[in-house]
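Researcher: I'd like a structural prediction for the single chain below. Treat it as a standalone chain; there are no partners to consider.
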Amino acid sequence: MQKMRLGGRLPGRNVVPGLMTYFSELGYGSRPDLVDNNQRFAETGNPLAPPTVYHRRLADEHRQALQESGFDKVYPDLKKFCLDQQQIHGTANRRMIEAVRGRPFECSEREPRPFNCIPTRLASAGSRRAANSR
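Model: Treating it as a single chain, here is the predicted structure.
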Protein backbone atom coordinates (compact mmCIF):
# COMPACT_ATOMS: atom_id res chain seq x y z
CA MET A 1 0.00 0.00 0.00
CA GLN A 2 2.75 2.40 0.89
CA LYS A 3 4.64 1.64 -2.33
CA MET A 4 1.51 2.49 -4.29
CA ARG A 5 1.04 5.68 -2.23
CA LEU A 6 -2.43 4.67 -1.16
CA GLY A 7 -3.93 5.80 2.13
CA GLY A 8 -6.52 4.15 4.29
CA ARG A 9 -6.70 0.97 6.27
CA LEU A 10 -7.20 -2.49 4.87
CA PRO A 11 -8.98 -5.06 7.02
CA GLY A 12 -6.89 -8.05 5.99
CA ARG A 13 -8.67 -11.39 6.07
CA ASN A 14 -11.26 -10.59 8.74
CA VAL A 15 -14.21 -8.24 8.77
CA VAL A 16 -13.40 -5.10 10.73
CA PRO A 17 -16.13 -2.84 12.11
CA GLY A 18 -16.24 0.53 10.36
CA LEU A 19 -14.59 -0.70 7.18
CA MET A 20 -16.29 -1.72 3.96
CA THR A 21 -16.63 -5.46 3.36
CA TYR A 22 -15.75 -6.96 -0.03
CA PHE A 23 -18.12 -9.62 -1.40
CA SER A 24 -16.06 -11.68 -3.80
CA GLU A 25 -18.71 -14.20 -4.83
CA LEU A 26 -21.98 -12.45 -5.45
CA GLY A 27 -24.01 -13.50 -8.44
CA TYR A 28 -24.39 -16.17 -11.05
CA GLY A 29 -21.78 -17.44 -13.44
CA SER A 30 -22.54 -18.42 -17.00
CA ARG A 31 -20.79 -20.04 -19.91
CA PRO A 32 -18.55 -17.99 -22.14
CA ASP A 33 -19.38 -17.79 -25.83
CA LEU A 34 -17.94 -21.24 -26.53
CA VAL A 35 -18.39 -20.93 -30.30
CA ASP A 36 -16.43 -17.66 -30.47
CA ASN A 37 -13.77 -18.89 -28.03
CA ASN A 38 -13.22 -22.06 -30.04
CA GLN A 39 -12.96 -20.09 -33.28
CA ARG A 40 -10.28 -17.88 -31.73
CA PHE A 41 -8.48 -20.90 -30.28
CA ALA A 42 -8.49 -22.50 -33.74
CA GLU A 43 -7.10 -19.36 -35.39
CA THR A 44 -4.45 -18.31 -32.87
CA GLY A 45 -4.29 -20.85 -30.06
CA ASN A 46 -2.18 -23.89 -29.38
CA PRO A 47 -4.33 -26.96 -30.21
CA LEU A 48 -2.62 -28.96 -27.45
CA ALA A 49 -2.96 -26.36 -24.69
CA PRO A 50 -5.37 -27.35 -21.90
CA PRO A 51 -7.69 -24.32 -22.36
CA THR A 52 -8.10 -25.15 -26.05
CA VAL A 53 -8.86 -28.81 -25.35
CA TYR A 54 -11.17 -27.95 -22.45
CA HIS A 55 -13.24 -25.40 -24.38
CA ARG A 56 -13.58 -27.69 -27.40
CA ARG A 57 -14.74 -30.56 -25.18
CA LEU A 58 -17.09 -28.27 -23.24
CA ALA A 59 -18.75 -27.11 -26.47
CA ASP A 60 -19.12 -30.70 -27.71
CA GLU A 61 -20.63 -31.82 -24.40
CA HIS A 62 -23.07 -28.90 -24.38
CA ARG A 63 -24.23 -29.71 -27.90
CA GLN A 64 -24.67 -33.34 -26.89
CA ALA A 65 -26.63 -32.40 -23.75
CA LEU A 66 -28.87 -30.05 -25.73
CA GLN A 67 -29.56 -32.81 -28.24
CA GLU A 68 -30.14 -35.58 -25.68
CA SER A 69 -32.52 -33.41 -23.65
CA GLY A 70 -34.44 -32.21 -26.70
CA PHE A 71 -33.53 -28.65 -25.81
CA ASP A 72 -31.79 -28.34 -29.18
CA LYS A 73 -35.23 -27.63 -30.61
CA VAL A 74 -35.24 -24.40 -28.59
CA TYR A 75 -31.51 -23.76 -29.02
CA PRO A 76 -30.22 -25.38 -32.24
CA ASP A 77 -27.33 -22.90 -32.08
CA LEU A 78 -24.87 -23.23 -29.17
CA LYS A 79 -23.77 -19.60 -29.58
CA LYS A 80 -27.34 -18.35 -29.01
CA PHE A 81 -27.65 -20.60 -25.95
CA CYS A 82 -24.44 -19.18 -24.42
CA LEU A 83 -25.36 -15.56 -25.18
CA ASP A 84 -28.91 -15.93 -23.82
CA GLN A 85 -27.51 -17.52 -20.66
CA GLN A 86 -25.11 -14.59 -20.25
CA GLN A 87 -28.00 -12.13 -20.70
CA ILE A 88 -30.18 -13.87 -18.11
CA HIS A 89 -27.35 -14.15 -15.60
CA GLY A 90 -26.25 -10.56 -16.23
CA THR A 91 -29.75 -9.29 -15.46
CA ALA A 92 -29.98 -11.42 -12.32
CA ASN A 93 -26.52 -10.29 -11.19
CA ARG A 94 -27.46 -6.65 -11.69
CA ARG A 95 -30.59 -7.12 -9.58
CA MET A 96 -28.66 -8.84 -6.78
CA ILE A 97 -26.02 -6.12 -6.73
CA GLU A 98 -28.68 -3.41 -6.68
CA ALA A 99 -30.46 -5.18 -3.83
CA VAL A 100 -27.29 -5.57 -1.79
CA ARG A 101 -26.17 -1.98 -2.36
CA GLY A 102 -29.54 -0.30 -2.01
CA ARG A 103 -31.24 -2.02 0.89
CA PRO A 104 -30.82 -1.37 4.60
CA PHE A 105 -29.42 -4.23 6.63
CA GLU A 106 -30.87 -5.99 9.64
CA CYS A 107 -28.40 -7.26 12.18
CA SER A 108 -28.68 -9.60 15.09
CA GLU A 109 -29.07 -7.73 18.35
CA ARG A 110 -27.12 -10.43 20.21
CA GLU A 111 -24.15 -10.29 17.84
CA PRO A 112 -24.26 -7.08 15.78
CA ARG A 113 -21.25 -7.99 13.65
CA PRO A 114 -21.32 -7.37 9.88
CA PHE A 115 -21.48 -11.06 8.97
CA ASN A 116 -24.75 -11.40 10.88
CA CYS A 117 -26.37 -8.73 8.74
CA ILE A 118 -28.65 -9.70 5.88
CA PRO A 119 -30.31 -7.49 3.27
CA THR A 120 -33.85 -6.87 4.54
CA ARG A 121 -35.59 -7.15 1.19
CA LEU A 122 -33.72 -10.29 0.15
CA ALA A 123 -34.52 -12.28 3.25
CA SER A 124 -37.78 -13.86 4.24
CA ALA A 125 -39.08 -13.44 7.76
CA GLY A 126 -38.03 -17.02 8.52
CA SER A 127 -34.44 -16.48 7.45
CA ARG A 128 -34.30 -13.23 9.42
CA ARG A 129 -35.46 -15.06 12.54
CA ALA A 130 -32.91 -17.81 11.90
CA ALA A 131 -30.12 -15.26 11.46
CA ASN A 132 -31.12 -13.45 14.64
CA SER A 133 -31.27 -16.64 16.71
CA ARG A 134 -27.61 -17.49 16.17
